Amino acid sequence: MTDTVIRALDASDAHLFDSMPDPLDARKAHRLTRHRPEWKRVALRDGVVVARGAWWGGPDDTEPLNVNWFDVAEGEEEAGAELLRTAPWQVELELNPPADWRTDPARRAATQACFAAARAAGYDLLVERFLYRWTPECGLPERPGRLEFRPEPDDGVFFDALRRIHSVTLDAHALLDIEEGGLDRAAQAELDFFHWCPSPREWWQVARTPRGDLAGIHIPAHNPSGPCVGFIGVLPEHRGHGYGYDLLAECTHFLVERGAEFVSAATDRGNHPMAANFAKAGYPVVRERINFRPAATDR
After folding, report:
1. What are the pLDDT digits (tens) for 215-274?
2. Facing residues of 234 across strands?
3. Which residues form the N-acetyltransferase domain (predicted)?
4. How many helices and strands (H and E) does the chain possess?
5. What distance in Å separates the CA atoms of residue 239 and residue 13, rounded to the nearest whole number?
6. I want to staple 32 with a disulfide (CB 3.0 to 4.6 A). Which of 57, 135, 153, 225 is the partner?
7. DSSP annotation of 40
8. Which of 181, 257, 190, 179 lies closest to 217 in space, CA to CA?
9. Which residues of the chain have pLDDT under 70?
10. If we measure between CA atoms, which residue out of 120, 167, 136, 138 comes closest to residue 292?
């Protein structure tokens, strides 16, 4: 077998990225995603692309936030691993296979090849997630009317709520932030993401009970690919009442009332209460997301 050649792309040869087969329908998944040519890399053998990766960040980011398109040809797991190992950016890897990847033999094989390449490159599995996409055909979820929603201009209110929400959380990314930097870090990471989104700060809302008690928060947002559920969180002392559904329903209505023709969302597979809320609200699972992180501790 000839040696692998790792090649960074630019605008002149970005077409090489599209020369591989697409068994996981990544092109369809990323039809609204803008990938910069200079953040794309391929592995070639005898001039043929056998692995590819597209790193991604927002329009104002100077470095990629993650690699969210990664493919490996059959039997080329080591080429894929080399592609990841030699990249100048050691950031989180997102694999986004279709929802049926576990039962479709071809898609299962393609996904597992990516898993093997990631692990060979030193990446560790962090979490498996459900990806949702609401469209008008799903029908608007009913608003229960149990909570009162209003904007809140004070970031401190959200920071305190996030600390309390994450004190009892099932979210793997939040748990990682807590492990590495405590509740303050986890809360600040969420706030930083909310501010990073190109949607108005005025959209952030708190939810209160009729007695005026703060029950939770929801963040309707736009990320660079469109409208999304930025965050849903119920304070620990108000859990057990199904308020997560109320927040999700309100978030959906809020975005639709501002012109959203679809709403994207995600939750960890292990977060069974939130997954149940998405099902109740009529959000179908369209893909899964498997997050890997570089094993190095100095990233």
Report:
1. 999 999 999 999 999 999 999 999 999 999 999 999 999 999 999 999 999 999 999 999
2. 216
3. 163-299
4. 7, 12
5. 53
6. 225
7. E
8. 190
9. 1, 296-299
10. 120
Q: Are the C-beta atoms of residues 86 and 76 closer than 8 Å to each other?
A: no
pTM > 0.90: yes or no: yes
> Quick one: 59 exposed, middle or buried, by C-beta within 10 A (0-12, 13-18, 19+)?
exposed
Note the helical H segments in the chain: 26-29, 77-85, 105-120, 155-166, 172-196, 243-257, 272-280
Tens digits of residue pLDDT in 21-40: 999 999 999 999 999 999 99
Contact 90, 296 (CB under 8 A): yes
Mapped onto helix, strand or coil, the DSSP state of residue 52 is strand
Angle at 290 between CA 158 and CA 204, to 5 degrees: 20
Give one DSSP letter per residue of 195-233, joined into a string.
HHSSS-GGG-EEEE-TT--EEEEEEEEEETTEEEEEEEE
> Which residues have CB under 8 Å from 181's CB, separation 6+?
none
Nearest to 206 by CA among 241, 238, 169: 238
Which residue in the block uniquely carries the two structure tokens 């929400």? 165
Q: Collapsing DSSP states into helix, strand and coil, what is residue 6?
A: strand
Three-state DSSP class for residue 12: coil
Q: At what angle do helices 272-280 and 243-257 cross, to 10 degrees?
A: 50
CA atoms within 13 A on the CB side of 94: 23
- Eight-state DSSP code of residue 298: T
- Identity of the amino acid at 259: G
- The encoded tokens of residue 23 equal 């068994």
Residue 190: CA count within 13 A, CB half-sphere: 31
Cα three-residue angle 13-18-22, rounded to 5 degrees: 160
